Amino acid sequence: xxxxxxxxxxxxxTPVVPTANPGRVGRLTGEAxxxxxxxxxxxxxxxxxxxxNKPAITGLLGFAxxxxxxxxxxxxxxxxxxxxxxxxxxxxxxxxxxLATQRAQVDSAALDTFRFRVGISHSRRPQTLMLQFATPHxxxxxxxxxxxxxxxxxCLTLKHVGACPSGQMGDLIALGGHRLRGVFSxxxxxxxxxxxxxxxxxxxxxxxxxxxxxxxxxxxxLTGERxxxxxxxxxxxxxxxxxxxxxxxxxxxxxxxxxxxxxxxxAMPVVVDPGATDGSR
Length: 281
Known about the structure:
Blueprint: E1 32-36, H1 39-46, E2 47-48, E3 57-58, H2 60-75, H3 79-108, E4 127-131, H4 136-161, H5 166-185, H6 197-202, H7 205-214, H8 219-223
Antiparallel strand pairs: 1-4, 2-3
Helix pairs in contact: 1-4, 2-3, 2-4, 3-4, 3-5, 4-5
């Protein structure tokens, strides 16, 4: 007696009917949020425009916008953009380390005992931002802003219950804000000259202009020995000089609609509560 196969597909006599071609899977999508509880952090979302004697302050959105330009220039093999990506990553890492140290010091000053405990203050109506940025550095900057917001909550709580002098807590808040503004303003020093590594090797006129405005490029950046942890895909061959287009002729890509694996060069705006302030004060 012939035994029956465990699976009909294993039977050579069973025909295999191919399924319809499902096509490629769709783009990965995701969601990211940032929750802000303090005025000090909220003002750093949009920053401040120059007004009278008050200088402009670059906020998170301005940082993200400038990072789009840096990201696209790095994709075009601009070594100066690579250099700025390294500098931005180092600045973010230094600011994160600073905030973590300050938060640990403030936390050690808490008055929690067996009978007396203090909960960290929080807003009854925080501002929630839905983030859809085009570069990983913008998300890291948003995380940095969240860490600063948490530090401000800690400082204001300890100030309220008398655990630390109010002046000391105010200084920590101001110092943390200063570090964040330094990170957010760093990409503003970059300028597009539409060059790549071949231009630098051939010492072209645009390479001269870039050197005059941006400084001497470190050799380890030019050779690629030193690079940022997060870099875009290259779109320009390294052995060919960059196309001679004016800055106005450079194509502006369409805004990204989702959080994808390979971010595009532009970002969607952050969704802000209608009642949120503009942060210009």
